[in-house]
Design a protein that fits this description.
By secondary structure, the protein is of the alpha/beta class. It is built from 13 helices and 12 strands. The mean pLDDT is about 90. This is LacI family transcriptional regulator.
Length: about 350
């Protein structure tokens, strides 16, 4: 029969809480009691359970993972999936497990994240950016629970966030095209209400204006970050009165849709139109042509989020924000004439 912490407490004639404090080496326990409990543990071969270890410390060593927003990123999005995998590995090495929150039923029932964090005694939460952020996420951000956001600007008393420098994303694309005599550029963004996409769009327009480059209203299109929406957006651009020399899509998935639309119409990439995406997902290396992109350092973002959350949990750092520099990666879809 497997022994429980209550069995050890009964044999030692102490409370379960005292046994837990001995196991966790916390609290003011007499040396005599410590020796007595440890002797019984040794004699019985008792192995403390996870709940026994956490009883005295009030720490579950559990991190909540929340895909925020009424329209959220979904677990199958390659960019966020890579960031979460990096985060998972880093927090695992720090001694934490992850509890993934589903927000479907909870949204209908009007329950909140904060109540569930308290119920599971979570040490902290990683919040993945979504769109149309629900009130429950904002309430959690304002609470005592340590939180770190990915691509969401948290501002609570115990919250930090990590994001790519989204202004630099568009600046690097436009500057590269300008330096290679490309003047006519289309832009395919995420949803019109997407915070990250709008930062990239505003930076794109600002940089285009700075260099006197050309874009048109019909060349500014929107999708949902996935391939089919990029395909549809590119077809709308091709149906217009004129076509650009280059297309910048704010996600690689949409850029892959752009390549598909151009291929179907017999438009040569990069000879007729050049294409650049954003994220540097694995598929970029295997598309035809291989996809130029703005690399977001997904591994670094995940690790930063893990260590920043760990520091917040242990009160080793003040809340802060970190912007990670992007890197333009030129592949076949944006080769210039002198390289083609």
């Amino acid at each position: 029969m497997k022994l429980t912490i209550k069995d050890i407490a009964k044999l030692a004639n102490v409370s379960p809480g005292t046994v837990s404090k001995v196991i966790n080496q916390t609290g003011n326990i007499s040396q005599q009691t410590i020796e007595k409990v440890n002797e019984i543990i040794e004699q019985t071969g008792y192995q403390p359970t996870f709940s026994a270890r956490s009883l005295a410390t009030k720490k579950s060593n559990l991190i909540g993972l929340i895909y925020a927003g009424n329209i959220n990123a979904e677990m199958n999005h390659p960019f966020f999936n890579d960031v979460v995998n990096s985060f998972k590995n880093a927090v695992g090495n720090l001694g934490y497990d992850i509890l993934v929150f589903s927000n479907n039923k909870f949204s209908r029932d009007k329950q909140d994240y904060l109540a569930r964090c308290n119920h599971y005694q979570l040490n902290g939460c990683l919040i993945i950016a979504g769109d149309r952020i629900e009130e429950a996420t904002l309430e959690l951000d304002k609470s005592h629970i340590p939180c770190v956001g990915i691509d969401i600007a948290l501002s609570g008393p115990n919250s930090s966030y990590v994001t790519t420098d989204n202004n630099k994303v568009s600046e690097q694309v436009v500057t590269h095209l300008y330096l290679n005599a490309i003047k006519d550029v289309a832009f395919i963004g995420g949803p019109e209400y997407s915070v990250v996409s709008n930062i990239r769009k505003e930076s794109f327009i600002r940089q285009m204006n700075l260099f006197g480059m050309n874009t048109k209203d019909e060349w500014i299109q929107y999708g949902d970050y996935f391939e089919e929406s990029g395909y549809q957006a590119m077809n709308r651009i091709l149906a217009g009165s004129s076509v650009p020399q280059a297309v910048f899509a704010v996600s690689d998935m949409m850029a892959l849709g752009v390549l598909r639309a151009l291929k179907e119409k017999g438009v040569r990439v990069p000879v007729d139109i050049k294409v650049i995406g954003c994220d540097d997902i694995e598929a970029c290396r295997y598309s035809d042509p291989t996809l130029a992109t703005v690399k977001q350092d997904k591994d670094k973002m995940g690790k930063l989020a893990a260590y920043m959350l760990h520091d917040l949990i242990n009160e080793d750092a003040e809340p802060n924000s970190v912007q990670v520099d992007p890197e333009l990666v030129i592949r076949d879809s944006c080769l210039m004439d002198n390289h083609a």
